[in-house]
Each structure stands twice: as C-alpha cells, then as structure tokens.
Amino acid sequence: MSSVRALVGTRKGAFVLTSDGKRDKWEVSGPHFAGWEIYHVKGSPADPNRLFASQSSSWFGQIIQRSNDGGKTWEPVGNKFEYDGVPGTHQWYDGTPHPWEFARVWHLEPSLTDPDTIYAGIQDAALFRSTDGGQTWAEVSGLRKHQTGNSWSPGAGGLCLHTILLDPSNPKRIVVAISAAGAFRTDDSGATWKPINQGLRSEGIPNPTAEVGHCVHRIAQHRSRPGVLFMQKHWDVMRSDDGGDSWREVSGNLPTDFGFPIDVHAHEPDTIYVVPIKSDSEHFPPDGKLRVFRSRTGGNEWEALTKGLPQRDCYVNVLRDAMAVDALDSCGVYFGTTGGQVYASSDAGDSWAPIVRDLPPVLSVEVQTLP
Amino acid sequence: MIRVVLPAHLQTLASVPCEVALDVQGRPTQRSVLDALEASYPMLRGTIREHTTLKRRPYLRFFACEQDLSHDPPDTPLPDAVAAGVEPFLVVGAMAGG
Q1: Along chain A (371 residues), what's the average pLDDT of each consecutive run of 10 residues?
Q2: pTM
Q3: Which of A12, A32, A60, A65 to mutate to test the interface with B (most CBs of B within 10 A)?
Q4: Which fold has domain B2-93?
Q5: What does the DSSP 8-state code read for residue A79?
Q6: Does the beta-carbon distance from B96 to A59 stay under 8 Å?
Q7: Residue B47 is nearest to which of A35, A60, A82, comparing CB atoms?
Q8: What is the DSSP string of A345-364?
C-alpha cells in the first residue's frame, strides 16, 4: 500500500509526519534540528529518500541538511552561498541602494530527474544551484543580473526568492518568484531571464502595472500542464495560460483575494486551492473562520471548504510554502498554520482533520507520496 | 592543547561534547583557534564567522578568563591561561530575544 510522508518546517525545528495510504493515523517524528528555524524541507522526486532541509538561525546562520534515508538521519552539507562577482546593490525599503546580503535559504527545489541537483532560493533574492548533492553551491546569476535587478526592493519579509518551478516538459525552463520583484522565467537553463508580470496590477507600487515590483506570494503549476500557472499575489489570485507571458485575475467570488499559498490538485489540473487572509495588515482569516477555498474551474468560481476546520475565533495565518498535495487517489491536501496545526484532507478538501495541533509556527509543508 | 567551549546548538551540529581540544601551532589567536576548529569540524564553517569575510557573526561572543574578547582584532594573542590550556576559549551565543 502507498504511504505518505509530510515534511514540516517550523520556527523551532523540522517534523516528519508519516501515514499509510488511508491517512487517518499518523506518526510524528521530531523535532529535528530543535531550536532552529526550518524554512523548508523537500524530497528529491528522483530519489524520495533523499531530503534536503534549510536550517537557519540569527545566531549561527545558514545550514543545509541532507538525509539519504527519508529523514531518519541527517548530515550537514554545504552552506556557502556566495553571490557571483561583485554583488552590487538592490533597492532598500527607503529607496536607497543596499548591498546584496545573504540572509537565508527560503526554498529548496530538487531536480525532477537528478538526485544530486538542487536549486535554492535565497534572501536577498537569488537562485543557487548545486550539482553535487548540496556540497557546493553556485549562483545562477543571470537572474539577479537582469537589468531590473538593482531596482528590486524587499517585501515585509525580506527580498526573498521563495518559489521555484521546474518544468517537467522542458528542462531548460524555470519559473521563479520574488517578493517584491515579481515572477521571472528562463528558457535557457538560467542563462537569461525575463520578467513575466504582464497583467499583474499592484496598487502598492508607483506604477501599478510596472514590469517588476509586484509582491508575488506563490505560484503553482500542475505537472501535466506546466504552461498553466496559478498565482497568489499579495492581493489577487491570477492565472496564466502561456507560461507567465500574460496573466488574468481569477479571484472571482473569494471573500478576500489576499493570501499566501496556492496549490493544484494532483489529478485535476483545474482544481486549485487557496486560503484567503483578511488583508495585508491583518494576517488572519476573515471573521475568525479558517476556510480553504477550492475552485474546480481553474479560478473565478470558488467554494469554501470548512468541514473539520475551526469556524470561530481562529486567527492563524498560513504561509506561502505551507500547503501541499499528495498524489494518492483521492488527492490529499495539507496545510500548516502559524498556530502550529497541520491539517490534512484525504478527500480533496471536502473534510479536514488536524494531524498535529501544537507544533511551533509552521513555515512550510511538503508531501511525498511513497510506493 | 587549546580548549574551546561551544554553545549547545553547535555541539549538536558538530556532534561533539561541550568542550573540544584543538592542537594549534604557534601562539594562539582567535583566528588560529577558529581556523583549527573549522578544519577539524568543517560543518561549523559559516556558523561562527562569516564565510568570506571571516568576521564574527553578530550574535556570537568570544569570552576567556572572564574577559569579553569579541572586539579584539583576530590576530591578538589569546591570554596565557588559554594558551596553556588552563582556561577555555568560549564561543557564546549572545543573549537576545525576550
């Protein structure tokens, strides 16, 4: 029988949650790296027992951990993220030039085909790649050296590259997203990049339709249809049908179109999930009701999913990397909250139950479906 | 041998006890002791000093013989008691937070 392994990063360590295919009983392992911030943990699609974790702290900096046995044991690998060449400056909050400074790894994206190749999205925003299992890292510097790079400015969480989408049908194509620069795409394995923000409208920047400067929170794709992208922007849920060349809003009847995560059903490319949050100044669900919204039409028409979720006095947030799906039939959907709960649905969102209730604030959730 | 005391998180990371002993050639300094520490435990690179600049990370302090040596130039000789192995060189996580 298939099984599921959820990889949960929190403010104070990593947790590995495992279940059989029924997904009603879970074993909890952790905390791994107790006391450290774990921004992200992700497994290699090419070797599911190879996991990578981003471990960091204000005191001791950045560590990358690697496991070759599904998270039972870990070893630190390379943690040197050095910008290519003379880094130069980007724009600071007050509009002045600010040197590029490495702060942490937000997101790890293992190659779809090679267990030794992995990408890292860092703050200040840059893309790094390792081809030796994380031992050494080199910047994919064409992105940061894009002509707009010196104008990128941070969002409230920092100038972070938080989304990396590898195209299953075209190994030369990568889409990334940066807060608050926007989305970018390469079609030549990272040598050159173009902003893909046409159609986005952000009232918080001087030119609401500028080429860059948009606070993109998350982008998701279905691996069978990688040209279709779904975006949760600071405000607005957006869709592209041309690999990001143009976007249109699909917020439709959502109660608020602010939020952080967005994900796609494993078997239905037009079924997508978001967690609406009241506003950029009130990072909690509207009316104290934790609701996942599902669209079965690729956006615009949304239904609230509430069964098993708290519908009163709930004021948690769900961060951008804290939602994932499994590949079982029916599709499992998972998300973690800043209140330390990890909720799971084994019926594509129709009903929910907490796997754990009292973890540290959850930063990320990834799910592996194992044979 | 030079005795170095590490904070708990770095003990875990390097899989070592609270105190490690290092063989340091010549008169020990912050730089030579930390070079020896990182050579013996490469996973500590970047955790005490920045990778490229080798500057002390802001939330760490270096103590010895009841003195704060954090702001000493890195090539300043360490106290005689540290050089003799009588007193340890302490890497301390600064108190921060509430």
Answers
A1: 95 98 96 98 98 97 98 97 96 94 97 98 98 98 96 93 98 97 98 98 95 97 97 98 98 98 98 97 97 98 98 98 97 98 98 98 98 92
A2: 0.97
A3: A60
A4: Ubiquitin-like (UB roll) (3.10.20)
A5: -
A6: yes
A7: A60
A8: ESSTTSS-EEEES-PSPEEE
